[in-house]
Specification:
- The chain is mostly beta strands.
- It is built from no helices and six strands.
- It has strands at about 5-10, 15, 30, 35-40, 55, 60.
- The strands form two sheets. The protein has a three-stranded parallel β-sheet with strand order 1-3-5, with no helix packed on it. Strands 2-4-6 form a three-stranded parallel β-sheet, with no helix packed on it.
- It is globular, with a radius of gyration of 11 Å.
Length: about 70
C-alpha cells in the first residue's frame, strides 16, 4: 500500500526482481533489501519517491546503472 514508511526485508532470501509497484509507495522513507538474491534492473521510479531517504540494496545481483535523478 502507498502509506508504508519503512520496508525491511534484509536476509530473507528473496529472489527475482523488485516489482515496478515499489515506485507507487509514495510515503516510503527507508528501503532495505540487502543480502538477498534479487536481480534485474532497478525501477527508475524508485529514485523519484518524494520521501525516500535511505536505500540499502547491497549483496544482491542487480544490473545496469543507478538513475541520475538522485539528489
Amino acid at each position: 500500500p502507498s502509506s508504508s514508511s519503512l520496508c525491511v526485508h534484509a536476509l530473507c532470501r528473496l529472489s527475482g526482481s523488485i516489482s515496478r509497484e515499489v515506485a507507487l509507495l509514495t510515503y516510503l522513507l527507508h528501503l532495505s533489501l540487502s543480502n538477498n538474491r534479487l536481480n534485474g534492473s532497478l525501477e527508475d521510479g524508485l529514485w523519484t519517491l518524494p520521501q525516500l531517504q535511505k536505500v540499502d540494496l547491497i549483496n544482491n545481483s542487480f544490473e545496469g546503472t543507478i538513475a541520475r535523478l538522485l539528489g
